[in-house]
Amino acid sequence: MTTQETYVSDWTILCDFDGTVAVDDTTDTLLERFGRPGWEVLESDWRAGRINSHDCMAGQVALLDMDRAELDAHLAQREVDPAFAAFVKTTHADGIHIEILSDGLDYAIRTVLARCDLDWLPITSNRLQLVAEREWRLEFPNASALCRVASGTCKCVRAALAQSARKRTLLIGDGASDFCVAETADFVFAKGKLIAHCVAKDIPHAAIGGFADALALLPALVSGKLVARPRVAQTLPDAASA
Fold first, then answer.
1. Residue 62 near residue 111, CB atoms below 8 Å
2. What distance in Å separates the CA atoms of residue 89 and residue 62, rounded to the nearest whole number?
3. What is the model's pTM?
């Protein structure tokens, strides 16, 4: 499916995928099912701050032991928030640009979205590459040397570009990969760990349980009842070249 839209709103919606659009973290489920020994050590090292997210994910993906058929069968079982399709339809009807902004795997994201006829959505993420029958590599076309948290996908760079194009950004997310970009977004629909981060940092936000809540909040966002004025976006020196 393809779509062509005229965006009349000054809002861009940047939407995390794993744990937000997808009910579970897709990468975690792949590691639990197909990961060779050692991926848990990398996870522990990342959580303890001994390695960054970029290096953790690169090392973990290299430990995946699966062929493409096994990958596809696993992805066919991943669930999407049941209200996400209706949310996308409504945002487009309101002239709002929406895209997926993820530190996850492009192939997994597009495959799961295809089941909902939503794989036409713009996706910024890491790139999963098959290098042998059962060997995989993760590439990082959206990394930035200036990323404050050294993620594979620098969400702050993408957010800065969105703000320069359409002025205001709504972030929808749930976890640590969303913490940094939440601080520069104009408003946040927050799930999971992101709720506590927004509270601690005094970030304008609404707590949601899923996209049914996000859909109910959308009219207030569009009308200006949630946030009247754009926040001053962080200037990122490499945003224009990312």
1. no
2. 37
3. 0.89
